[in-house]
Write a structure and sequence with these properties.
By secondary structure, this protein is an alpha/beta fold. Among the domains are: 192 residues, Rossmann fold, CATH 3.40.50.300; 59 residues; 110 residues, Serine Threonine Protein Phosphatase 5, Tetratricopeptide repeat (Alpha Horseshoe); 73 residues, no CATH class; 53 residues, no CATH class; 60 residues, Orthogonal Bundle (Arc Repressor Mutant, subunit A), CATH 1.10.10. Helices cover 62% and strands 6% of the residues. The strands form 3 sheets. The protein has a 5-stranded parallel sheet with strand order 2-3-4-1-5, with helices on both faces. It has a 3-stranded antiparallel sheet with strand order 8-10-9.
């Protein structure tokens, strides 16, 4: 019989502090499974308390003991996917436990529920008869109701076989009635709870000593104790201090240099706030501007809400252990959280809110909140752009809440309403809601707003129209904004227009045009930085140029800009910097690229752009290349939100089909993607053709693969994507033999698309009419026509018509 002592002796000394009793319970569970007995352990704690680390310890101990580990994780957005974490752990394992075909074919029917409880239970019992199993399921607050209903039945039915269940739940996240009922049943069945309490002072000091290599001095310990015993917050604080070179050792004690909260900790807090509702997120950030202890009346004054309107968001933040109530006042659970929430806001917005807070605390007493209609007590962000600034900072939910409030305010002026509509359209696009976004943008375009912010809004509207696959309208609107900016002498807006134009040129497959714009309009690298969004656009454009041209100049420029953006205030800018670093690392170090994207939600960071769609496609290719299931699952979840059936915009539908085709190795989806992307995203169209060819080559169909690669190459050539052309030329040589040489002059030298263009133009069609017929942009038609003229040695449409007549075309 295996004992817990034998398991513990086989493992290295644990680096965990304050968890000895819990680790002992884990060892006992492992020993029980080895001896053929079932055991259920419920790991519970607040966010950052170490639940995932405990599951890691469970996995490590189980594998060291010779137990096979099955792992599943409940993810946001999977509530509509029956039994997702449970099936991921079982039929999704290698080799599978249970019949994957049955799970797929039964779908969401009642038969699947029967299969899970009966057939899957039998499969687990059969597998455990050969070797003990450990089933680890993480973050079950986010699991679907079917999973939670099945767990009590499965654990009870398998209590007499060697299966160890380790299930984690997070305090502060209400999973609904199904989760509460499942926990009640599991408790009744003698499941053991492993509650992760906050670290005590001596345990905090031990963690700091392990990390810094010396016991902390009083100042560092005082700072560390502001984490209030939360291991994740404490470690992120220490890692952030080390990254910023603020930790040292003096006279045998670890010391800290002064400064603001480390940016790394700010990012952790932003992620934690992201789990709240939009109203609660906004409340937390505004509350961070108030004194350490504040009244509900002061908070209501800052938010311009009635006190009664704050009941639900305040209760939510208290349940999440972010705010606590003491003696009629509210305060943050720990000061590090408050400081990080403040630092998560852009500098200009933070200063404006601080000024508002002074006015509110001067005018509002605990006994009397300001009247709802009074705006003088709280001055909003200058020019009515608070929602817009939150959106630009990447705070989509808080921005949407503010924008909806603005639109519901009868006193809001045109500028405020215009930016509110713009913000909501951007949030809709980020969520994949193309129909709603289109309606808002059309409303904006249909209104004759003449306020000072109208030119800036036109730039963003142009960008979003391009996101929706309306590049011609986008180009016209962007040109109008540029003309307005030049007329007004608005330097920042002129530069923003130029940088957007360069990025949108890449999305339209005009690499040469994008390179020319980047070189002609780029800010000097030694003058970029701060919170300027134009530097982010410049960075993205350079990264795309580096990928598609293979040139070192754009690559170096992108690296410099990414390095600087990592130190900016805006989380959205830092997110894009990390993405660019991942894209630049991927060709030589794909695993490093995966690491960089480890916590990226893959959704738009800040304003949605066509670059987000290209980035999602990159993430899909990366996940497929390294076979990273976690990244693939995240990619799949985002792509699914873009798929709106017949109502989705062509760009959304095409990108969704491409990404799902990549991660699911689905050729039919890739064909669908190619059809949808043709004309709206040329580079992604070519990538879809390339991937179809790759799939056909793996099936041994080299002739068909070569056809697809040639189609992709033709598009890459037209786009000016030299690196892609060279890559495919090498692949054609390697897999399909020498590519048949096309004549360089004459009708036979024309590509299929060039022939289609010249036939339409020779028949009297304008470039725009030909573009509509072929689902191309007028610029692309012009490029095809120019190349055709050169190959045919002509220089007019009349000559073209005559030549076509001569050859009987």
């Amino acid at each position: 019989m295996t004992t817990t002592k034998e398991i513990h002796q086989a493992l290295p000394e644990s680096a965990l502090h304050g968890r000895d009793d819990l680790l002992g319970t884990l060892d006992a569970g492992v020993a029980a499974a080895l001896n053929g007995h079932g055991r259920v352990l419920l790991v519970e704690g607040h966010c950052g308390s170490g639940k995932t680390r405990m599951l890691y310890e469970a996995r490590r101990r189980a594998e060291r003991a010779g137990i096979r580990v099955l792992f599943g994780e409940a993810l946001d957005g999977q509530q509509a996917m029956p039994f997702a974490p449970l099936l991921a752990a079982t039929v999704g394992s290698v080799p599978p436990v249970g019949d994957p075909y049955a799970a797929r074919t039964l779908g969401a029917s009642a038969d699947l529920r029967f299969w899970v409880v009966h057939d899957l239970q039998a499969a687990l019992a059969s597998a455990a008869s050969g070797e003990p199993l450990a089933v680890l399921l993480d973050d079950l607050n986010r699991a679907d109701a079917g999973t939670m209903m099945a767990l009590p039945a499965l654990t009870t039915g398998l209590r007499h076989v060697g299966v160890l269940w380790v299930l984690s739940f997070c305090h502060g996240r209400d999973g609904g009635p199904a989760v509460r009922e499942a926990l009640s049943h599991l408790d009744d069945a003698d499941a053991q709870r492993l509650s992760l309490a906050p670290l005590r002072s001596r345990e905090t000091a031990a963690v700091v000593a392990d990390f810094a290599g010396a016991p902390p001095d009083p100042d560092l310990l005082a700072l560390a104790e502001q984490a209030m015993g939360n291991p994740s917050v404490l470690l992120e604080l220490l890692r952030g201090l080390r990254e910023e070179n603020r930790l040292g050792v003096v006279n045998g004690h670890a010391t800290v240099c002064g400064g603001p909260v480390p940016r790394r900790l700010v990012e952790v807090v932003v992620e934690r706030l992201g789990r709240l509702s939009a109203e609660a997120q906004q409340l937390m950030r505004v509350a961070a501007m108030l004194p350490r202890q504040f009244t509900v009346a002061e908070l209501a004054g800052m938010l311009e809400r009635r006190t009664a309107d704050l009941v639900a968001p305040i209760e939510e933040t208290v349940r999440a252990d972010l705010l606590i109530s003491e003696a009629g006042r509210l305060r943050f659970r720990h000061d590090l959280l408050r400081q990080a929430a403040r630092e998560s806001l852009p500098g200009a917005l933070r200063q404006a809110l601080q000024a508002d807070a002074v006015g509110v605390t001067d005018q509002v007493t605990p006994a009397a909140a300001p009247p709802v209609a009074t705006r003088s007590a709280v001055r909003r962000r200058p020019e009515g752009r608070l929602a817009y600034h939150l959106w630009m900072a990447g705070e989509a939910e808080a921005a949407a809440a503010e924008a909806r409030h603005d639109l519901g305010n009868a006193d809001a002026d045109d500028e405020t309403r215009g930016f509110a509509l713009l913000t909501l359209a951007g949030v809709d696009i980020a969520r994949g809601e193309s129909v709603e976004a289109t309606a808002r943008l059309d409303e904006l375009l249909g209104r004759d707003y003449a306020d000072a912010g109208a030119p800036l809004r036109k730039v963003h509207i142009a960008n979003m129209l391009h996101c929706l696959g309306r590049p011609d309208e986008a180009a016209e609107l962007l040109m109008a904004a540029q003309q307005s900016a030049r007329r007004d002498g608005d330097g920042p807006l002129i530069n923003l227009c130029a940088q957007f134009s360069g990025m949108l040129s890449v999305a339209s497959g005009r690499i040469d045009d994008a390179r020319g714009r980047a070189e002609a309009t780029a800010l000097p690298l030694n003058e970029t930085g701060g919170d300027d969004f134009t530097s982010v656009l410049q960075m993205i454009t350079y990264a795309e140029l580096a990928r598609h041209t293979g040139k070192n100049g754009p690559r170096r420029a992108a690296q410099v800009l990414a390095h600087r953006a990592q130190s900016e205030d805006l989380p959205a800018n830092r997110r894009w910097a990390t993405r660019v670093r991942a894209e630049l690392a991927a060709p030589g170090e794909p695993l490093e690229a995966v690491r960089l994207l480890g916590d990226d939600p893959l959704r738009p960071a800040g304003p949605p752009m066509p670059a987000d769609q290209h980035f999602l496609a990159f993430a899909a290719r990366l996940a497929a290349e390294v076979r990273d299931q976690a990244l693939g699952d995240r990619v799949r979840a985002v792509a699914t939100t873009l798929h709106g059936g017949s109502t989705a915009s062509p760009a959304f539908a095409g990108v969704s089909a491409y990404v799902l085709g990549i991660v699911d190795h689905d050729v039919e989806r890739l064909h669908t993607a190619a059809q949808a992307l043709h004309g709206v995203r040329p580079l992604l169209y070519a990538a879809a053709r390339e991937e179809i060819g790759n799939t056909l080559a793996r099936q041994g169909r080299l002739s068909s693969a070569a056809t697809q690669w040639n189609l992709a190459t033709e598009t890459y050539v037209v786009c000016g994507a030299g690196a892609d052309v060279r890559r495919l030329a090498e692949r054609l040589r390697r897999h399909a033999g020498p590519r048949s040489r096309r004549p360089v002059t004459g009708w036979a030298a024309l590509t299929d698309m060039e022939r289609k263009v010249v036939r339409l133009v020779a028949g009297g069609a304008t470039n725009r009419e030909a573009a509509l017929e072929l689902f191309l942009s007028p610029h692309t038609v012009s490029t095809h026509l120019r190349r055709a003229f050169a190959k045919l040695d002509i220089n007019s449409r009349v000559q073209l018509a005559n030549r076509l007549h001569d050859i009987g075309g």
